[in-house]
Batch of 2 targets.
Target 1
Amino acid sequence: MTNPPILDAFSAIRQRRSVKRFDPSQRMSEAQQRELIELAMLSPTSFNIQHWRFVVVNDPELRQQLRSAAWNQAQVSEAAMLVVLCADIAAWEKAPERYWADAPPATRDILLPMIDRTYRDRPQLQRDEAMRSCGIAAQTLMIAARAQGLDSCPMVGFDPQQVAELIRLPQDHVISLMIAIGAALEPARPRGGQLATEAVLIQDRFESRA
């Protein structure tokens, strides 16, 4: 796959669209895939916990099995790159010193107890935080792909239990979404309807709590 000109951030955001048909003849090298993942890894996470786990599926047979679990959506097998974006819900307690290994000792002494106090015995918050982290990373990944001239499609249309079994998802992990990345075979459909800015932009506070 050739390297097109890199887009600026604003252009990449404006041009990113969810495409459904990818050119199955296009391929991405391991280096190209790794670069996109490393860019996604620059996404912020609470306490720098880095919950995300990027399952990059290149095995053709596994791709076909995942396509079956995704209601036979073609992009699962035809895209140049398929990422099952997962999160380690228990990452907060797995050697948390790793997340601040390069920080001054005084910083670590403050933050490590805070991580424990924040998440221990709070399973809903643990899951919420992990899913937030995945959402941010997913957008970073798709914008990075568009900046490199690639298209993408975020997907939640699949059987999560089947996908979990196929990728051997650990018990303390959760699947957030799948992302197909590659060269669009046909343009994305026109936008279905964009809300006016005034409908979603609130200045300072809502008018009432009703």
Target 2
Amino acid sequence: MNDKPPVILQVLPELNTGGVERGTIEIATAIAQAGWRSLVASGGGKLTPKLGYVGAEHFALPLVEKNYFTIRRNARALAAIIRKHEVSLIHARSRAPAWSAWLAARKTGIPFVTTFHGIYGHQNRVKRRYNGVMVKGERVIAVSRFVADHILSHYHIEPELIRIIHRGVDANLFATDKVMPARLAELARLWQLPDDARPIILLPGRVTHWKGQHVCIEALAALPHRDFLCLLVGPTDKHPDYAESLRQQIARSNLEGAVRMVGATDYISEAYMLSSLVICPSIRPEAFGRVPAEAQAMGRPVIATRHGGACETIIDGHTGWLVPPNNAAALSAAITKALTLPREEKEKMALNALWNIHEHFSLAVMQHKTLDVYREVL
């Protein structure tokens, strides 16, 4: 690196909700705070204004498009941005934008870095070739060991090029002392939470089959009592048929009044604060899974499925519990254990969870490690 501050350009499809988008903004913030210049190219979205707040610049391009000719046009546009703004390094976070970014990097001679945020399907040769752009980076960031193992199993890449950088939890957002009482009261009123002492079980995540809400309902139905309130927190509009099947399952299981679908919320840290237990019953492995990490940062006991990123963020029996996938009986037993845990053991688990997240999965750690990758490549 020369004496001039680096200019980093991140590219992604769009800037709406999601882990890719949040990660982009978090790293854009770190770049600007380091005194570097932070640029982002995407198709835009509701999170775009946040880039301005953190000191980054945005360039609108149709990077969500997968059409070959659009990818080539995007590559030319990115090359123009690279030359005009003297970009030092380009960082791609998704496949279609990565093809454009890789072509632009080759054309301008700057380093190219990628991040694997998830597990891509590789059913046929065409799909594998399309995915292959994600291992063309001079460094390839994997958001978990699970993802790194997947990369090594399915793509031709030297292991020393992979850097494992777990997603980070923002201590300014997910901390009990940062929760706003007014928001807490508003959320309790909106969800019409009862005044009784029933424990609140939280299942955050978009309502879709692989998130496993049906497994949770089956597990709750097996409990010998209804002394709880379970809230399914997440949008239902993408999979209305599945949402309707959950409503019918709740009715069949005599869980009406004990299980509610409350939709999405922007007050997720307040939702954790209101809960006694957090459940993540996904039936497919999550690449990282922010919910178990966020719940631990809030000092809440968490039960998750024993696969994917949850095996890395949860220390089984010490910061939460891991159960076999798609196993309602095991989940039901874990729920019983969590709800009957003595107070002193619950407090010890909360302290363990807080240490685990702040030591290994904090936003600051993630930002620091990512900038180290940039420095290494530059």
